[in-house]
Every structure is written in C-alpha cells, then in structure tokens.
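Notebook B, p. 112. Complex prediction, attempt 2.
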Amino acid sequence: MLEKIQAISDPTRFAILELLRDQEMPAGKIATHFPSISRPAVSQHLRILKHNNLLWERREGTKRIYRLRPKGFYDIYQFLEEFWDPRLQKLKAVAEKEEERKRA
Amino acid sequence: MLEKIQAISDPTRFAILELLRDQEMPAGKIATHFPSISRPAVSQHLRILKHNNLLWERREGTKRIYRLRPKGFYDIYQFLEEFWDPRLQKLKAVAEKEEERKRA
DNA sequence: CTCTTCTGTAAGTTCAAACTAACATTTGAA
DNA sequence: TTCAAATGTTAGTTTGAACTTACAGAAGAG
C-alpha cells in the first residue's frame, strides 16, 4: 500500500493522473503534455501507475490507451480512513479475532 | 499536498506514525524503536512529519513529545476523495463559478 | 556555574529512483 | 514482404532523499 501511495506522490505521475481524470488517452499523446521530459520516462511512469492499479490499459492497433482506475484511489482512501479513525481500528481488531476463532 | 502524501509514503515515517497512533512519545523513545537507523535520522523524519502537519510537538523539560495529528490524514483523505469522486468534482466546479460571479 | 540528558542541526556520503539515448517489439498499411 | 507508426525495454547517468558522523543548543540536577 505504501508503494501505491508513493506512486501517486510523484509530481509527474500525479500530473498524468490529473490529465487522465477527464479523458482516456494513448501513451504518445500523454507524453506530448510533458515536453520537458522524454517519452520513455513517461512510459515508465505509466508502467508504475498501471502496476499499482491506478490505470487501466487497453490496446487499439499500435496504440495503448490509458484510463483512470478509480478503485486504486479508493483503496488508498480507505486505507487512510482505517488508519485515522480509531473506531474503525477497533472494529477491524474485533473482526480479526473472530477470524482467529474460526481458524482454531 | 503531494509533499504531504510523499511524507507518509516513506516506510520509516509511516512506521513512526503507526507507533504514535496509540500513544504519544518523546523523540528519544521513538528512536529506540528503530535500532537499524540512527537517532538523527529519526529526528529528521519527525521534522518532515511535523512540517506536513502530521504530528504535534510539545516540550516537557528537555524532552520533545510527539503526538499524532489526525487532521493531516483527514486532509489527504479528503483530497483523494475529491480527486476520485466525479460528483464532488462537479460540485466543486459549481461552487467556484458561484464564487466568480460574486467577485464580478 | 558545571555537568548531564535530550534533542536538533550541519556537512558530507550513499543509494534508489527518475531520467536520457539507443535499441527492440508489435501492429497495420502499401 | 517491407516500411512506418506507436510504444515498450535496456543500459547507463544524474539527481534527490535518506542516512551517518560530528557538532551545537537547551533545559534541569547538583
């Protein structure tokens, strides 16, 4: 989970996510939005985002079209909620004990 | 905000936050929980967490006691919710237009 | 005062991650 | 086939963040 959080915290990667929030886009077009960095660099960022379930990839001919994957964000969102909210913490602890009793 | 997200994504810093989730603690005692890294390293992590509003600091004699600051987490949580949820996005856009009309 | 305890700060090192340049792969078109 | 377009991958470089060592400062005890 920390890896996923780190994935979105990189400025370039977050800019990519912002770009894809409103519309899906092929890799090449994404790269044109970042003239200061090379296309391979963007490609590597896309791979990281994809591996962390923050993007979907689909192929159309030679193009690879990337699309935001909301669940990835929701996972982080939920993780933080659980960390932060002590009541949820306690509920989780109870659930885990329940689980243990079942296994025993 | 990205800086804050990056702050919690470091494994050592997140471990510090986990440690402080249940109880506040002076800097020295925090450091003892991380025998593999030096005390100054922990001190630097504490500074980063403090600067990002993830920790409170209070002084007692020569000790500096650190305590979790839930709002910091809530800020990230809310930021992701807004990014992720398209309905909230639209509501925000409407609110901003409203604001503009008032200024004009 | 002086000493000790607890801690932060500064300077320099190390290492992982982001980057570039060159090459490889895949797909469709002629 | 052959070529071009779109993209990924690899190898090596660069840069920034985490780290260590050494030093500095602040607060109480004696």
